[in-house]
Amino acid sequence: MKKDYTILVPTMLPMHFEILISVFRKSGYNCKLLKNEGDEVKEYGLKYVHNDTCYPAQVVIGQLIDAIENGGYDKNKIALMITQTGGGCRASNYISLLRKALFNAGYSHIPVISLNFAGLDDSSVKFDVPMVLKAVPSIMIGDLLMHLRNQCAPYEQNGESEKLCRKYIDKASEILTQNGLQNKKIQKLYKEIIQDFSKIKRDGKEKTRVGIVGEIFVKFSPLGNNDLESFLASQGAEVYMGGLMDFVLYCVYNSIADAKLYGMRKTKARLYKIVYNYLLKKQRAIIKLIEENSDFVPPAYFDETRKLADGYISIGMKMGEGWLLTCEMLELIHSGVKNIVCAQPFGCLPNHIAGKGMMKVLKENFNDVNIVAIDYDASASRVNQENRIKLMLANSNED
User: Fold this and answer.
1) What is the Cα 154 distance to its own chain's centre?
2) What is the pLDDT of residues 5-64, one digit of tens each?
3) Domain limits at 46?
4) 202 falls within a domain
5) How many angstroms separate the first and last alpha carbons of the chain?
C-alpha cells in the first residue's frame, strides 16, 4: 500500500515533524503533515469523540476527520497515522478512539497506522535501523531550531529567525534523505545553524522570560494551546521550554527505572540504558556546540534535570508527563526563569498531580516564582486563558 497511499499525520511540533516526515518518505511512507486548524477541527472532535475524553484526543481526531472531509484527498487512497508511547494516557489509547470515530463517520475502510516502538498494534510502522538513527537527528535539529528561534524572535527586527528555520528545515530534510547516515554533514549542520542564528542582530531590551511546561500535546501544539508561544511573544515575553528529546529521554529512562523500582524487564532495561546513554551523548554534543559557538543559553542537560526530582516527586510517578513535568518547572526556576505557564488538558489527572499539584510546594520553596495553570478544553474561553496569563505577566513586572 505504501506506493499508492497518502498517510495523513496530525501536527504537534511543525518544525520537528516536517523533518521527521522527510525520513519517513525516504523509507517509502508518503506522509502528509496536516496544517488544517480552526473551530471546525474542534467541532469534528466533539462530534466524534465523547466530550469527557481528553482534549488532545478531540483535537487530533478532529483534525484527521476534518482533513478527510475537506482536504480534497482520495478517501480510498489515504491512511492515518497516530503515535502510541506505551503509557496509560493519550498517546497509547487514542488509536481505538480514532478507529471508533472513523466507523461512526462512515470511514471504517481507512487504515490507521500506529507509530510506536513497543509493538502495541498490528498496524505498527516497521522501523529499520537507518530510519531510527535518522529520526534522532531529526528531533535534535527540531529542538535546536526551536530553542534558538525562541531566544532570537523577541529581540530581532526583521523576522530573520523564521526564515532561518525554514532554510534549515529544508536543508536537514535534504541531508537526511540521502543514502547513509551522513553523520559528518549533520554535525556540520548543527554548527552552521548556531552560527547563522548568532549573526541575527538583537536589541538589548530586557524581556520577561516565561517557561512553558505541561502535557506534551498542549505544551507544543499551536492547535492545542491556541498558539500560546505567539501570544506570549505578543506580550513582550521570551519563551523557554524543554525540547522533544527530553520527552524521549524521559520515556527511555522510565523503562530503566522500572527495573530498579519493580524488578521488571531487567534484560530490556540494559538495552534501554545503552539507548539512554547514546541519546544523552548526542544531547551533550549539541549543548557543547552552543556554548562554544554562541552566547545563547543552552538547553539543560537531561540527566541533571532528572536529578531535580529528589525531594519533590518519585521517578515512579510516570503516568503522562509524570515526574518530568515537575522537573521541568524546577529546571526553569534554577535557570532563572521564574514565570511558568503549566498547560494541561482540562481534567487531565496526571498533569493535575505532577503540574498543578506541585505548584504549592514550589511557591513555598521559591517565593519569587509565578506559576499559572491553564486548562485547555473545547469549552474553555480563549479570552479567559489569555487574561490569566496577562495577570501573571503583570505580577511579574510588579516584582
Assistant:
1) 21
2) 999 999 999 999 999 999 999 888 899 999 999 889 999 999 999 887 889 989 999 999
3) 6-127
4) no
5) 60
